[in-house]
Amino acid sequence: MTSTELPVVAAVDGSTHSGDALDWAAREAAGRGLPLLIVHVRLLTRRADPEAQEREAAELLAQAVRRVNGIAPGLRPTTLAPLDFPSAALVALSRDASLVVVGSRGLGGFRSLMLGSNSLATASMAKCPVVVIHGGRRDEEPDETAAEVFPDVVAGVAADESSEAVLEFAFETAAVRPGARLRIVHGWTMFSSMLSGGPVFDRDAAADAAERSLAELTAGWREKYPQVEVVKEPVNGSASRTLVTASATAALTVIGRRKGGESLGLGLSPVAQTTLTHALGPVAVVPC
User: Fold this and answer.
1) How far is CA 13 from its chain centroid?
2) Are 223 and 165 in a shared domain?
3) Which terminal residue of the chain has fewer beta carbons within 10 Å of its beta carbon, N or C?
4) What is the rounded average pLDDT for all residues in the chain?
5) Pick from 2, 47, 7, 3: which is nearest to 26 by CA?
6) Average pLDDT over residues 80-108
7) Residue whose C-alpha is closest to residue 131's, from 284, 279, 277, 276
8) Which domain holds residue 183?
9) Residues in Cβ contact with 154 at an 8 Å cutoff, skipping those fewer than 6 apart
């Protein structure tokens, strides 16, 4: 199986959030021409009845397949029910996946938490991009209209090489969405300008430097994807706050995970974790 045929993996557990994630994954797989793998992880616990777990998993997966057939006929998803810890199973599957899609919270999550531990762990450690679907933004609107109401893809970038993977995923995603613009957002402050070796005391010069950095970052990608309309948005302010605000009117917000923190046990940068936790729509976390 080539990299272009690697499946979209959708994690389901019977929760409303995982149902939303399954719907999103089915549409994305169909739009990208990729296979869909639906996964329900049977929990490792001594108190569980293995036979009952298998029956429940089979029923849940059968329901998920029927749901996908109603959304994307002809997709023909496959299913898997490994016995493992949820995040461990999804991270393992991510090695041979194009994308992993999860709900922001599962059945075991506390309602007061905006992001469940399994979603956070998967986004922190997966080997491929992970999309976390936040529920509640459009509860009263039919799902079919979401792409029409919020067509844009937002990509949060830093002015360095860490943004290459983010831009690649963002351009690919925008290219398969008819009418979608790609809004490339870069939040900057005078402090970040200083850290990157830019102007320190001249705000206008710092703004010009941020705009030039965005132009340099996007030049090659715009040539590769000429069909994608690009809007560059250098914003003076907190990067995470800027991305959370942008996520309210985005079909998908794409952010980089930054691998550097993994050696310290930190899979997500502060900007990525804040954005992922507080976003108002779907967020893709890209290893970079």
Assistant:
1) 19
2) yes
3) N
4) 82
5) 7
6) 88
7) 284
8) 143-286
9) 182, 183, 185, 243, 246, 247, 250, 252, 253, 254
Residue 112 pLDDT greater than 50, yes or no: no
Express each pLDDT in 262-285 by its tens digit.
444 457 888 888 899 899 899 999
Tell me whether residue 196 is exposed, middle or buried, using C-beta atoms within 10 angstroms of its C-beta: 0 to 12, 13 to 18, 19 or more: middle
> Are residues 214 and 120 both part of a single domain?
no
In the chain, the number of structural domains is 2
Q: Characterize 142-162 residue by residue with b for buried, 16 or more Cβ atoms within 10 angstroms of its Cβ, and e for exposed.
A: eeeebeeebbbbbbbbbbeeb
| Cα–Cα dist 211/194, whole Å | 15
> What is the CATH number for 103?
3.40.50.620
Q: Which residue has the higher pLDDT, 205 or 62?
A: 62
Kindly state the average pLDDT of the residues 188-192: 60
pLDDT tens digits, residue range 114-158? 457 888 899 999 999 999 998 644 444 444 444 446 789 999 988
- What is the per-residue pLDDT for 139? 41
Whether residue 96 sits in one domain with residue 231: no
Domain-located, residue 138: no
Going by C-alpha positions, the residue among 42, 39, 41, 58 that lies closest to residue 50 is: 42
Tell me the whole-structure pTM to 2 decimals.
0.85
